[in-house]
Amino acid sequence: MQTHVVKSILLALILISCSATCLATIIANSNVVQNTISPSELKSIFLGTTSHWNNDTPITLCIDNSDSEKANQFYIGILRKNPRSYQRFWSKKLFSGDAATMPRIHKSPQKALSFAINKEGAICYTSSLPETLPFGIKVIEVSN
Amino acid sequence: MKFSSQTQIDLNGYRYIKAIFVTLVISSASLHSYAASLDDISLNGYLSAEYEKHIGGDNEGDKNGSFDMDLIDLVFNIRATDKLRIATDLTWEHGAASEENRGNVAVEYAFAEYLISNNTKIRVGKMFTNFGIYNEIHTAKPATLTVKEPQSTNKNNKLGSEIRFYPRWLMGVAVVGTYQLSKMGGDYVLQLSNGESEDEDINPFEEDDNTHKAFNGRFRLRYTDAIQLGFSFFLDSMEDPNSSGRIDLSSYGLQADWENENGTGLEFEFVLGDEDYSQAQKISRYAYTAMLYQQLNEKYTPYLRYEYLDPDKNTSRDTGTVSILGINIMIDESMFLKIEADHFSTKENNGKFNGASFTDLKVSLSIGF
Q1: Is CATH 2.40.160.10 correct for B42-368?
Q2: Across the interface, do B143 and A50 touch by the CB < 8 Å criterion?
Q3: What is the pTM of this model?
Q4: Is this complex scored with an ipTM above 0.90?
Q5: Which segments within B240-282 are labelled E, that is strand?
Q6: Distance CA A139, CA A141 (A)
Q7: Among all residues of chain A, which has the CA nearest to that of B262?
Q8: Annotated domain spans of chain B
Q9: Do A85 and B262 touch (CB under 8 A)?
């Protein structure tokens, strides 16, 4: 119980003191035109409100869930939804015909990197980046 | 010049091979033009199996207790081009077996969507009627907490109404899109369609039974991260199969849902409308549904829902209510067990249950993929 309280306080402190930049490491396929996006644009993309990039390429999403605590900070800090609500939210969008796919959830950063490299229009949240960025992806800066 | 029979065969063979070659070139060219690569096709879907048993009250519901192979749906999305998407949901319900005339096979939706911008997309095809919270996801059991969608607002003909507030599906064209107003976001849809037909001989997904087109729409506004508000409407005019007259159907809906980051949520929907018969008395009706739920942790989400329907405001003691207490248990990432008790209570003039009150146990296992 005490651990839970301490964790919640820490998370709250992080959310208060931290901008979106430190809550989210965002990578994208190198064909994605944008290099910088605002936190509200990031939210709009991961909630499916924005479904296409400016050059009309469809956006596909992935989330690296390998570090669940960091991923939770992304879910709650940026998207304002807990993981289960986020899943149900996207199930509704997909099965109603509103969206073409759901965000792909990966359990390792490598799989998220690989997804972003291979999928045109892909944008992913990842908990960690390799020292050298592989060819085919880029880091998207999240700033106002 | 004469050819030997062997030469004749060879020449025929040559022509034959040439014809095959030309055919292959033409077909490969057309394949190249039209085929979507596997990378552009996504397959999803869901499966739902249910068990239902009458557990108390008057003699209604399923006394025997039955397993139901509710449905399996396959959802295909095909990116024909960056701007063009084909989406379809194909369903096999209740263990469909056409040889035995059992169950149901249906196209839930099949439409083409063309992107103009993120704010504007055009759809053509068979679609769900975009109205309220549940209609577009009424079969998508992994997307809902409860076993069934609310009867009062979404399936009111099963709780005492003559006809539904709006049809399940439509064939026509639609404009859909999203918008951003300052920090608030939202979406809209407008649909123009054949509407519904009460004439069993007419397939409204193929032809209209009158010149009037149905028009409906929905506007949703995400007021804050936690609160979404919405307004829906449906307007149609159709032939009355019981007379030579017409039925003008009009329905209006309000919806609100709120959910905080801890998974405490509230859903509310209110629908009112008229069935205006040219050769019979107008029926005015209204309904609402409210649900409260709380995610206890990643696994368990108990819920409480109340539904109310007045099928005809001019008829006294015809109302129906449903009270539901249940729990949604996430067994695996996309596998849900739902267990609930549904208590139905109706007044003596209710067209469906004639005053019966009873309780059903409903259990379902739903899997999304």
Answers
A1: yes
A2: no
A3: 0.87
A4: no
A5: 246-259, 264-277
A6: 6
A7: A82
A8: 1-33, 42-368
A9: no
